[in-house]
UniProtKB/TrEMBL annotation:
Keywords noted in UniProt: Phosphoprotein
Lineage top rank: taxon: Bacteria
Keyword Nuclease in record: no
All residue ranges annotated as the Response regulatory domain in the record: 17-134
Presence of the UniProt keyword Cell inner membrane in the record: no
Protein's recorded name: CheY-like chemotaxis protein
4-aspartylphosphate modifications at: D67
Organism, as annotated: Nocardioides marmoribigeumensis
Length: 137
């Protein structure tokens, strides 16, 4: 029996292209493991918001995983840039949030982020966010 693991959002669209922007910390290893387990997913990384936006445009990305750790370009500016760019109008923004920075989520969701995942997170939580559904432990 062959199993195909894919992430589809709540509208049935298959997630194929993902960009992660954030520091190269231990969480990136989990992202790689989870995304490598999904068929036909291309994963790009950046430590800079502006570069991540360029990657999203270039690769017609489906999901931007935005770590709100301190970046050269603040997370709120990245979210606003996505929402103001006609080329990125359909880009889903999922926040990766450290518990200590959870108070920032409301502003970022108001700016246009879709949802968030509290770090550290497990693979099931990440896949649930990619699929646009809440994670039920």
């Amino acid at each position: 029996m062959t199993r195909t693991a894919v992430a589809t959002d709540d509208h049935g669209h298959v997630v194929r292209r993902v960009v992660h922007v954030g520091p190269p910390d231990d969480g990136v290893d989990l992202l790689r493991i989870v995304l490598d387990g999904l068929d036909e997913v291309t994963f790009h990384e950046s430590a800079d918001g502006e570069h991540a936006l360029e990657l999203c445009r270039e690769h017609r990305t489906d999901v931007l995983l935005l770590d709100i750790a301190p970046l050269v370009m603040p997370a709120a500016d990245v979210v606003r840039a996505v929402r103001e760019d006609p080329a990125l109008v359909d880009l889903r923004v999922i926040l990766l949030v450290d518990r200590a920075r959870a108070h920032e989520v409301e502003e970022l969701v108001a700016a246009g982020a879709e949802t968030y995942v509290i770090k550290p997170c497990g693979p099931h939580e990440l896949v649930a966010a990619l699929q646009g559904r809440p994670y039920d432990a």
